[in-house]
């Protein structure tokens, strides 16, 4: 091989490495709102085509969903065959709301996954010990990108919602932080969820002490910061967050798309774009 052939091969190899390094990862957090007949015109049967349409438009690589029940997950899986999903219900028998995670089968593969409950007995399914009325949990996975073998952890959660549950939300955030502290330092972490409290809370402070809040640290931010709008489109609280550790954040946006004045959920989804090292 000539000298110039070697130079050209080296340049092509460098370009290939740079292209692989530049492959972005798109992460969505989405409280899909469980099916509740009290929602009237915004009942799930009306909203479900909108949810599918929004997901087809956004095409995130991985989605942390909250308030998901199995019937919703099964519908999404049928309509979005490029995705696979996992997660169990929060109740002791595996029923109830899921912290379900959908992911692009062509982009990612699951190396390992699991769940733990936000209680004094995190390995006991359905456990509650902090005074809130429903089990709260985390579903997680270690993912690997098919294109280059890069790995990252995703954690997905939903904290208690009542005003009087602030102490339980803090305990939940502390439990998540303790779990994240046991992970390898060289593997990036993404945390998605509906935290049911605002960024001035102690729960947020605990998580932000070791993780980046994508909304306040990403170099490009689009949309409005508040996420809960109760099907009105007029959001008043930033209670849905995406946190990152060990990855380069590029952007985050709130997805406020509507069709005929109807929304896919009572929360605006968030989409963060990042790059793994």
Automatic annotation (TrEMBL):
CDD domains cross-referenced by the UniProt entry: EEP-1
InterPro entries found in the cross-reference section: CCR4/nocturin_mRNA_transcr, Endo/exonu/phosph_ase_sf, Endo/exonuclease/phosphatase
GO molecular function terms listed in the Swiss-Prot or TrEMBL record: endonuclease activity
Superkingdom of the source species: Bacteria
Keyword DNA damage (UniProt): no
A Pfam family reported for this protein in Swiss-Prot or TrEMBL: Exo_endo_phos
Key word Zinc-finger present: no
Domain Endonuclease/exonuclease/phosphatase: 28-267
Key words, A-Z: Endonuclease, Hydrolase, Nuclease, Signal
Signal peptide as annotated in the record: 1-21
PANTHER family per UniProt: CARBON CATABOLITE REPRESSOR PROTEIN 4 (PTHR12121), ENDONUCLEASE_EXONUCLEASE_PHOSPHATASE DOMAIN-CONTAINING PROTEIN (PTHR12121:SF36)
Protein name from the UniProt record: Endonuclease/exonuclease/phosphatase family protein
